């Protein structure tokens, strides 16, 4: 460890648990002016987890390579700490310390020293005693590890850098209700005109600065309004009224919107100018049904896209799904029950024609839907496709980037998910890839987001979602 006292007592010393490096290999550079300490046990656990093709194994290898580059570039004694400003391109100005000596710390008898977590805790205890005037903090994604550290009187915290939001209640919903006095405060100097059956308003007022492009606005009352913001220029905003998909004449593959948010979602799904759509909502809000109905209409009727590609996270993500027996589609079939259920509903709306007609329609529909595994997405390009990513809340931001960057010319990407149902270890509502893209894509003219709130599956499902 370092042979001299730290230059500044205000800087903290963060001790990294293995799961932080396996979650974010660049975490070494995320502590700004503070110092980072990596125990030998962390390196040992990285070594144990580096084999395989899973996301965790890839991250372990990347973290090891990053540390190798940092140590190789250091001309000074490692025990004095390695400056991170050059390797991190000035993202971090602290130092990296590697454990360079054996630490024999007496742990409580109830904690077995053979366990890796407890050896890391021993290192934190040693550092806290060695630098009593400095903040020594354990950083871990493991809740039990943090509880044990606090029980021993040590500082411990979660790794926050990957979190988009601390509070998911602050996540962008994609819509806002206009106040009752909206037109009184925004109608001064307003321009209004009609074009291709839509009404446009150019408004100015106090709310305009907080509006985002493709955000939906609505007002209930005597003269209800449902519209979306199509552009914002300084202090003025352009608002366009919506197509009413709740009316049967505007049905999408026989499906009509049952509530306001579903109408907003269909306006996004059916608009060719919107390349990227995210739909959040609990079970039964209609995410998959609306998306499939819009996809079938635009593939089979409008011929806007050549085919539908559907993929979903098979937790654990990235593990080998095997080669024999069965094709990629057959292996994915057990995960695709939601697709089959929704096709049953949509096939029932395809008109009469008896059993033969329905069977023929179903075969036609099924031939235009391809089911793909996430494992084989890297390096692919989808041209003129309607790409549906289901259960997207289980993706990390890195995996989400890998998927969305597959989109070629003319492709529309739709991400569906419920951030309250995350199954991937160490992912939380705040750090999910779905939360990440919702936050990063807001206000881009070719993307839109809607949080669906009202369940439409059945009264039983709605009640269960509320009380269970």
UniProtKB/TrEMBL annotation:
Keywords, in A-Z order: ATP-binding, Nucleotide-binding
UniProt key word Nucleotide-binding: yes
Superkingdom: Bacteria
Transmembrane stretches, start-end: none
UniProt cross-references to SMART domains, sorted A to Z: PINc (SM00670)
PANTHER family: PIN DOMAIN-CONTAINING PROTEIN, PROTEIN PHOH
Protein name as catalogued: AAA family ATPase
Taxonomy of the source species: Bacteria, Pseudomonadati, Pseudomonadota, Betaproteobacteria, Rhodocyclales
